[in-house]
Amino acid sequence: MANPSQFKLLVQRRFLPFFGAQALGAFNDNVYKNTLVILATYQAASYTKLEPSLLTNIAAGLFILPFVLFSGMAGQLADRYDKARVLKVVKAAEIGIMGVAGVGFATHNIEVLLAALFLMGMHSTFFAPAKYGLLPEVLRDSELVGGNAMVEMGTFVAIVLGTLVAGLLAAHGGTALIVTTLVAIALLGFLSSLAIPKLQPAAPTLKIDWRPWTSTWENLRAAGESRTVFLSILGISWFWFYGALVLAQLPLYTKDVLGGSEEVVTVLLVMFSAGVGIGSLLCERLSGRQVEIGLVPFGSIGLTVFAVDLYLATPAMAGSNLSARDFIHAPGSWRVLMDMALIGLFGGLFIVPLYAMVQQRTRREIMSRVIGANSILNAVFMVVAAGVAALALHFGLTIPQLLLLTGVLNAFVAIYIYSLVPEFLLRFVAWLLIHFVYRLDRRGIDNIPEEGPALLICNHVGFADAIVISAACPRPIRFIMESSIFKIPVLKTIFRGMKAIPVAPQKEDPEVYERAFQLVAAELRDGNLVCIFPEGRLTPDGEIGEFRAGMMRILKETPVPVVPLSLSGLWDSMLSRKYKQVWKRLPRRFLAKITLKAGEPVPPDQAEVHDLRRRVVELRGSAQ
Q1: Which of 116-130, 166-180, 355-369 has the highest mean pLDDT?
Q2: Which of 197, 308, 368, 452 is 20 to 30 A from 131 via CA?
Q3: Does 311 score more than 70 pLDDT?
Q4: How far apart are the first and last CA of the chain?
């Protein structure tokens, strides 16, 4: 049965109240923060003697500071207690915080207003771990990408709307209207949270550490439990660094470089946010509703390409205090607007799979602490971004040059991360293969267990078999491959990156032969998937050869379910052994259809070589 669209989540109680509460929280954050900054900037005499630029930086720092100080405790609380309950308490506190802000606006007391801003930062600090930790508890694995996409889309739409509403309130609203609006949004968010279904605590016996620094360290330690998860968190934090660096320059970039007015700043922000929303929503479709980390390199490529293009597009602009309408009609403006939108779009493709993978590969008992660690690192990276921008501009870089530097830095960071975790790049290669070279038809993939060990067996058609199977399965797979393949240029790099297990005939290399069985047993004992091609070689004629008995030794040493797979459609491709001459292997047509079918798991005590071969033959049918 086909999986429902991600938008179906918006009519389900397990998601809709939570979505409304988090979107309204992000909306209120931005309405309050931007209203405060605008009023203090344009009505400075009645609020503060601070310079507007200094006030803006103080406000940003006060909002970020709680993430550094309290994310450790926030993560522990969300693991210790029902996450739905935590969200409700936080949303109730938001109403009181907006009451404090109301007193500040009524008395024009900047200290009270900044205190309320600090408290809103605390509100977001305690909300985030429960927010992202809740998703894997209420969504299936096939819904994780769509759910995260909806959350990111909702957040960035809330940011845009909050910015627009703040501008209207600051320009045309009196104190009463401002306070009423802020309290009303907080009240709506709290009412929405009341409908979030109750959940069971993930770690009910966890002892809360109320000391900021030790609880922070505990969260970081939990995040470091999995190297891949920790590097994914660093990738998310890098996106916040990138976004902070780009978005912080928008006002000066618009005013001094593009010659635009405040309206143009809003237009650029809307284009960026719309791009993030569209990119986030595209993730579900492009990933086939599975956690597809192959989209992450695709996203990082776009983040570099369009940051560089924004630098190249800038010299064509000219003007003085242009309105939004005049800017749109100015030569070259559409290129700038599209660059901003595409930076956002590829940012969505970059960040949504990372969030989904962190949620999928983190133990439930420590999920919120890992998210808390992510919040800490996000805040640190944003502070560092502000420092990098200040230093770069101090040493004479122009804003367009700073944007170019950001794009170049992104390329180096991406290369570094993918060198540490080749799985990202390998999944990208697999994703390209099944989207731009072939059309993959998946059937029965649900028969591959979502967790726990299993031995996958499949006919061996071509050199890309392992890549195709990897692309179809959301879980990592360790492949057993003949050692001769590891001598083929390019392919050996790919398969080593996949941590494939080389095996050689016992007579040729008994050490490699025995080592392979030891590695397979270790992987299965750790609860992982292992795939073997029982024919022991690529098919020479397109037919399925006899299965060798090596897999029976695997099942004897480590009894696990066996999942039969069949591949068809690859025999006529350039990656098979059908054609000897190189020129005959050139692609005859792109997007040729290939099929991967998975049969029902076979218990280890019922597995038998001839029966397993029969199952694979029946799955494949007459196709080659």
Answers
A1: 116-130
A2: 452
A3: yes
A4: 26
Burial class (CB in 10 A: 0-12, 13-18, 19+), 329: exposed
List the one residue out of 199, 204, 233 whose CA is nearest residue 79: 204
Tokens of 400: 């367009």
- Report the percent of the chain where pLDDT is more than 90: 21
Contacts of 529 (CB under 8 A, 6+ apart): 448, 453, 454, 456, 473, 475, 476, 477, 478
- pLDDT digits 0-9 by tens, 252-294: 788 778 888 777 888 888 888 889 888 888 887 887 767 778 8
Which phi-psi region, left, alpha or beta, contains residue 259 (left: φ > 0; alpha: ψ -120 to 50)?
Answer: left
In the prediction, which pLDDT does 181 show? 93
Are the C-beta atoms of residues 257 and 317 closer than 8 Å to each other?
yes
C-alpha–C-alpha distance, residues 341 and 335, integer Å: 10
* Per-residue confidence (pLDDT) for residue 21, from 0 to 100: 93
**Token pair for residue 123?**
């509100």
Which of helix, strand or coil describes residue 478?
strand
Q: Which of 172-176, 364-368, 498-502, 555-559 bottoms out in mean pLDDT, i.e. has the lowest?
A: 498-502
CA 501, chain centre distance (Å): 29
Please check whether residue 143 is in contact with residue 393, taking contact to mean a CB–CB distance below 8 angstroms: no
Helix/strand/coil for 540? coil
State the amino acid at position 369 in one-letter form. R
Give yes or no for a contact between 146 and 8, defined as CB atoms under 8 angstroms apart: no
CB atoms within 10 A of CB 456: 23
Q: Which residue has the tokens 């006030």?
A: 55
pLDDT digits (tens, 9 = 90+) for 133-154: 888 888 887 788 888 888 888 8
Q: How far apart are CA 80 and CA 204, in angstroms?
A: 5
* CB distance 585 to 574 below 8 Å: yes
Strand order across the beta sheet in which 529-532 lies = 438-443, 592-598, 562-568, 454-458, 529-532, 477-482, 501-503
| Tokens 């059309």 belong to residue | 439
What percentage of the chain exceeds 70 in pLDDT? Answer: 89
Whether 580 has a pLDDT exceeding 80, the answer reads no
- What pLDDT shows up at residue 2? 46
pTM of the full structure: 0.79
Residue pointed to by tokens 């993939």:
445
Question: Is residue 59 within 8 Å of residue 33, measured between CB atoms?
Answer: yes
Token pair belonging to 132: 């992202």
Find where tokens 């770690």 sit: 203
Q: Are 299 and 346 in contact (CB under 8 A)?
A: yes
Give residues with Cβ within 8 angstroms of 236, minimum separation 6. Answer: 351, 354, 355, 358, 374, 377, 378
Half-sphere exposure of 478 (CA within 13 A, CB side): 21
Count the residues in the chain. 624
3-state SS class at 210:
coil
Radius of gyration of the chain (CA): 27
* Tokens, residue 499: 């941590």
Backbone angles phi, psi at 417, to 5 degrees: -65, -45
The residue whose two tokens read 């929303």 is 277
- The confidence band for 1, taking pLDDT boundaries of 50, 70 and 90, is very low
Contact indicator for 142, 289 with CB cutoff of 8 Å = yes
